[in-house]
Structure formats: C-alpha cells, structure tokens
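RNA helicase
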Amino acid sequence: MSEELWDRVLDAQEATSSASQPDFPRTMAGVRGPLTMKEDVNSNVLPEKDFADLWKEEDKVDLAKQSLLNKLIHRSLVRNRNQVEVLQRDPTSPLYSVKTFEELRLKPELLRGVYDMGFNRPSRIQENALPMMLAQPPQNLIAQSQSGTGKTAAFSLAMLSHVNPDNKWTQCLCISPTYELALQIGQVVEQMGKFCPEVKLAYAIRGNRMERGKKIQEHIVIGTPGTLLDWCSKYKIIDAKKITMFVLDEADVMIATQGHRDQSIRIHRQLSQDCQMLLFSATFEESVLRFAEHVVPDPNVIKLRREEETLETIKQFYVLCREKEDKFAALCNLYGSLTIAQAMIFCHTRKMAAWLCAHLIHEGHQVALLSGEMTVEERAAVIERFRSGKEKVLVTTNVCSRGIDVEQVSLVVNFDLPVDMDGNADNETYLHRIGRTGRFGRRGFAVNMVDSKYSMDIINQIETHFNRRITKLDTSNLEEMEKLMS
Ligand SMILES: Nc1ncnc2c1ncn2[C@@H]1O[C@H](COP(=O)(O)OP(=O)(O)O)[C@@H](O)[C@H]1O
Ligand SMILES: [Mg+2]
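Structure:
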C-alpha cells in the first residue's frame, strides 16, 4: 500500500477519533490505549514488519501429529452434506450404495459391534465405500475425504468382515504412518470386533520383536511401514503371498514421511496379484495421486469434497494499533463492551501467544493456550476443555489450531494477521480461521489487529480476494462499537 493511502487511513482514523471522542481512549490500567492520531502524526510512519522473521519461531506442520490430534478431538462424524463423487473402474456395472448397515449382510456379531459403537447408519463416504470393499470378486478402492468422515471405521469393518478366522494366518495388512495412528486403528478394530473374539489382531510396531521364521497366526496385522516390511521380508513371520486385503491408511501423511513411501512399495511388491488394495487419504495432491495409482491398480475412486467455508455470516472488522500493548488494550475494550460467548485469538508466534495469555490472565480472564511445544495429548486436552466451556478464550498459534471447529466461537481475533512465506495475505488460512460451514452457520465477528502499513495492505488483499468489506472499528468508541457489532 502506498504512503498516501496509509495517510488516508490515518486521516480517517483521526476524523472519527476527534469527532466522537475528544479525549484519549479508554485504557486498561497500566496499558496504553489504541493508536491515536496525535502519536501517528508526530511519528509520521508506522513500523514496517519483517514478515520473514515471523516464521522463524514456529514449527513446520507435522502431518502425522496433526492427524493424531484430529483423531483425539473428533469424537463424532464430521458433518458433510456434499455429494460423493464416484469413479467406477467399470462404469457399466451398477453402482451400489447402502443406507443401512443391514444391507451389507454382515455377520451378526460384526453388525452388533457396529451398533455397539453407536453407529446408526453409514456415513456419506461409507454408503459407497462399504459395498465396494465387500464386493465379490474383490475390487480395489482409492478414497479421499477429510479427516473425521468415517474412512478408518469403513476399512476396519471391511477387514473384520473379510477374514476367515478358521485360517490361522495373516490375511489383512494395514499400513499406517505412525505408531500412534496404528494404535488408533487397532482400537477401532478391537472395538468393532468385540463380539468376534475369534478374529485376532497384531501390531507391527517398533519394539514388538518377533521370532524369526515362525509365522504368526493373527488374521489382521496393523503397523508402520518399516516394521511391517521387516515382518514380511527379514523375519518372514508373515507370508505376504497369503495376504488378500492390503490397506494403506493416511496415504498423504505416509508419503510425506521420509522412507515410508518406498517401504510401502516394497511391501506392496511382495503381495500376490489378486490381493485387494485399498488406499485412504484426507487430501489428493498430485504426489498422493501418483502414489495411489502406483499401488492400487484398476481402482474405483471415491471423493468427498470438504464443505465450503464462507464469510457470509461473519462481520469483519479491523482495528488500528501500534504495538502489542495497543492490541491488548483493544482486545480488553472489545471484551468490556460485548457479550462474548467464546473467543479464539490467533497469534503468529508462540512467544506472542504466551505474552498475550499471561496478560489476559492478569486481567482476570480464563484462558486456554495452545502452543507448539505441547504434546498432541496436551493439545487435545486443552481443546476439550475449551469445547466444554471451561475456558472462554483460546489463544493459539496457527500451527496449533488447524482442525479446530470454530462453529461455537462467536469472536475470532487475528492478533497477528495470517501471511504466507512470501509475506502476502494467506487467504486460505484467513477463511479457515473465521469461516463457517453450511448455509445456516452461526453468526460471528472477526476482528483484525492492524499494526503497520504492511498489515493494512494484508487487510486490503483479503478484502479484494473475498470481495467483502472489512470495516474499521475504533474500540475506544464504545457507542460506535456497540452499533457496529450489534
Ligand atoms: N457410520 C458412523 N456413524 C457414526 N459415527 C461414525 C460412523 N463412522 C465413523 N464414525 C465416527 O466418526 C469419527 C471419525 O471416524 P473415522 O473413521 O476415524 O474417520 P476418518 O478415518 O475419515 O478420519 C470417529 O469418532 C468414528 O467413531
Ligand atoms: Mg482415518
């Protein structure tokens, strides 16, 4: 943004400040109030930001951790009203979909296990995926849908239904990217197979040492690629030629991990030609697709697009601030004048999040903090507490917040604006932070803290991108604020 435009922004600010509010803004004890014109005019320029610096502190997103976090916080199905797209290997064959689990003609003990988990009917993706996975002769399947839509439950059911317990050898292999995710799958299989005690399960994970050459009898083996490869080739405790169902879960996470792609392919090579191949992924980038096509010949493909998020029901504002103290004061003003059910506040760095959290607590707020150094389990616990309303404010960095459902949150504050590595507006993250899914998404407010010309430019980019106005808000002007935010 040009200097003149920034000046115009500041002029506008001065006009409103002086018209409606002759005095200095209301401030919190010991904290400077929001940016005022006097200061701006005197210092003339606002600080420039070095956005590259912002990235240094934060970790890169760890896909496997993210996936595990999703597992821990998603206790139920993720709503998705989109239509499933199905690409059949043989387009002339009839397309089966089921609306009930009965239609699948499962063993009664297995059906009981499904109902015992509280599943009443198949999820969107399961409606199509289950008949395909259970079809005779077997069909290969590639399925993609966001986390929480029922993929793991679907292939767990397929594995349990597939095995013949009288055959005392391994019939299903399931590869998962990490130890923790493998255990998660195993828990589902165990729970669903609760009334089928004759079906046995083993975990091929690091530390599970086995005797060489003696074949194991477990019907289903779930594990990480390295250990599974060892079990098949080095220890020869699984006869890969006898495997009749091969499942690759979280393929996108898998191939993002060094070495896992090749190990998976080496296991795959040992399987017999007629082994049924099933691959699941939350995303379908080019690299995932190429991998999928390589390991799953002649597949049926099922895709379920994520429900679009919109800004339709969100009122968006920005507040001019100079430094973090101003942002904090603005935040306190917002809180002082609005009835806010729950709020989420985004900071760019852990350090900023910790600073803000400490100050909010000092002001008497009950605050939850999500931070990069926390374990996945700790994060899940914090999110759970926030969800149940034990804390009304959640302070987080972007890396930590992915996957958190914001539907219940009435105020989202971008304490720092979302920017990409090149320092441009990160529109996707912006939408993800404040957008709501579904046509009847609840109303909400988004407040953006603008602390430099650079960040004002980001706001303009976001406005242009979404073609929706972001209104200036003077948090020191109570009357105006109440009017705007009502
Ligand atoms: N048909 C269903 N009905 C109700 N809940 C389901 C159903 N299928 C799965 N779930 C639940 O939804 C959540 C997500 O399922 P999961 O299979 O882990 O999804 P994904 O593998 O796509 O992430 C889990 O808590 C699971 O128990
Ligand atoms: Mg899954």
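The CA atoms of residues 146 and 448 lie 28 Å apart.
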